[in-house]
Amino acid sequence: MFHVFDKIVFSMAAVRLISAIIEFTAAMLMLYFGKIETAFKINSLLALVGPAILIIVTSLGLVGLAGKVSSQGMLLILIGITLIFWGINKI
User: Fold this and answer.
1) pTM, entire model
2) Residues 52-81: what's their mean pLDDT?
């Protein structure tokens, strides 16, 4: 189906696929238990998984781009990532 030759791209996609499986499983557990308290607890656990996945996939992407992007481009990417985390912490 897909022919991915870049190991970084494959790794990024695999981590996102694992994240999707975790999200889907959490949704099914919420429906299975059918209680708002339990659903809230499950959702709270997902709040821990999301940022971890973001950090892992972003790190993999930066590793893959390290030799391909100019130093100015890398600086802009790092500034963007910093702004994302700054925005998340300001909520």
Assistant:
1) 0.74
2) 86
Average pLDDT estimate for 38-65: 89
Which 3 state secondary structure label does DSSP give 68?
coil
Q: Alpha-carbon torsion 66, 68, 70, 75, what sign?
A: negative
pLDDT at 91 over 70: no
Domain borders along the chain are 7-89
Separation in Å, CA 23 to CA 8, 47, 64, 79 = 23, 10, 26, 29
Q: Which amino acid is at 54?
A: L
Q: Which residues contact 8 (CB under 8 A, 6 or more apart)?
A: 60, 61, 63, 64
Residue-level length of the chain: 91
